[in-house]
Design brief:
single chain, 132 residues, alpha+beta, Ribosomal Protein S8, Chain: A, domain 1, globular, Ribosomal_uS8_CS, structural constituent of ribosome, rRNA-binding
């Protein structure tokens, strides 16, 4: 039993990047699938694949590295809202990550999205993590 599956997801990706792995396998959930789609849309991961094996299924994430320098596209993954202390942001108080160069992933009433998309739609939500 994992108390914080989102932190586990981010830690698995962080560890795979530190070990220079190409692919990382993560137990699936609907929220993790949505976070993976956001990371893919914003260009932080190369590709992903959802596999329906067993009761839960897995997510295979292909990590993205610079072709010449081998520097990972994701430099930092930081969990913000934790089970012990939830962090929420309104449309006006939306955080800016690295002055707009990074993204904050939010869970809103309209689904999982970035801080920029939430600001455009004028909605707030729970700040899940920062990526840059």
């Amino acid at each position: 039993m994992n108390t914080d599956p989102i932190a586990d997801y981010l830690t698995r990706v962080r560890n795979a990047i530190k070990a220079n792995h190409r692919v990382v396998e993560i137990p699936a959930s609907n929220l993790k699938k949505e976070i993976t789609k956001v990371l893919f849309d914003k260009g932080y991961i190369a590709n992903f694949k959802f596999e329906e094996n067993g009761p839960q299924g897995t997510i295979k994430v292909a990590l993205k590295y610079h072709p010449v320098t081998k520097i990972p596209a994701i430099r930092t993954l930081e969990r913000i809202s934790k089970p012990g202390l939830r962090k929420y942001a309104g449309a006006e108080t939306m955080p800016r990550v690295l002055n707009g160069l990074g993204i904050a992933i939010l869970s809103t009433s309209k689904g999982v999205m970035t801080d920029k998309e939430a600001r455009q739609q004028n909605i707030g939500g729970e700040v899940l993590c920062y990526v840059y």
